[in-house]
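hiii so um. not sure if this is the right channel but i have a protein structure encoded as tokens and i wanna go backwards to a sequence. like what aa goes where. can anyone help
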């Protein structure tokens, strides 16, 4: 009988997961640890990162609290993390912010905050990963975009523009970082039932929630649905995939 293999096995890999203190980031970290990866967990809240750390399978994991909105400092911070824990075989960039705000109250400070956190940090991570000593011989970078970038999203235009930028950056970086041995892909989810979304739903009535659910024929997603896609793209099972935006949206854009 042939040996059972797991093409998504992550044993021996060191991965950085941003936004690991909650939601999709936490689910991704837990999934990657179950696949055998050794993780550095990033977020702004050390206590919540500790909660994620306690939920991981395996050993050798660590936390590294840092505010990724400080984009100019990201490459240096990554160099220090690699020095302490070894080069990165990949990054799952799950950190981001979303605040609904109609265009009639658009302001420069809001634009700068959303773009800096959602798009600027993503680009700075790519810059940091390609540094000597920061990445392993081969590495994979996975971003999270959103169907907000590809479907109508009223009062969410700035966020949608930032997430559209992630899709464009995925294409451009996949070519630019190819000589560095880095694959670049992104996952494009629709509404996923994270703590943030659940709090947002508290402001909606039952009819509004039902309308949103009908937009997704397979219903609302769960964090693990996105974590599985991220894990696949980070693994050698996806070694021939780069520059791709993988839609994981319950049929929202089908």
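sure thing!! here u go:
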């Amino acid at each position: 009988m042939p040996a059972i293999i797991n093409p998504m096995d992550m044993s021996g890999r060191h991965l950085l997961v941003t936004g690991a203190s909650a939601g999709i980031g936490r689910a991704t970290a837990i999934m990657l640890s179950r696949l055998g990866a050794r993780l550095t967990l990033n977020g702004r809240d050390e206590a919540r990162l500790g909660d994620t750390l306690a939920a991981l399978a395996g050993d050798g994991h660590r936390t590294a609290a840092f505010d990724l909105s400080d984009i100019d400092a990201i490459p240096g911070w990554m160099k220090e993390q690699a020095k302490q824990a070894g080069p990165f075989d990949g990054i799952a960039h799950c950190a981001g912010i979303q605040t609904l705000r109609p265009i009639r109250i658009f302001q420069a400070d809001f634009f700068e905050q959303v773009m800096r956190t959602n798009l600027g940090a993503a680009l700075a991570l790519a810059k940091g990963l390609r540094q000597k000593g920061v990445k392993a011989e081969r590495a994979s970078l996975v971003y999270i975009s959103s169907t907000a970038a590809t479907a109508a999203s009223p009062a969410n235009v700035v966020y949608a523009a930032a997430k559209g930028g992630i899709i464009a950056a995925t294409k451009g970086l996949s070519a630019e970082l190819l000589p560095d041995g880095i694959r670049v892909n992104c996952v494009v989810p629709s509404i996923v039932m994270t703590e943030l979304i659940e709090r947002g739903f508290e402001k909606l009535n039952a009819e509004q929630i039902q309308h949103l659910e009908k937009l997704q024929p397979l219903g609302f997603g769960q964090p693990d649905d996105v974590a599985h896609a991220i894990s696949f793209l980070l693994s050698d099972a996806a070694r021939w995939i780069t520059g791709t935006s993988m839609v994981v949206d319950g049929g929202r854009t089908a």
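oh and Residues 14-248 form a domain with the Rossmann fold fold (CATH 3.40.50.720).
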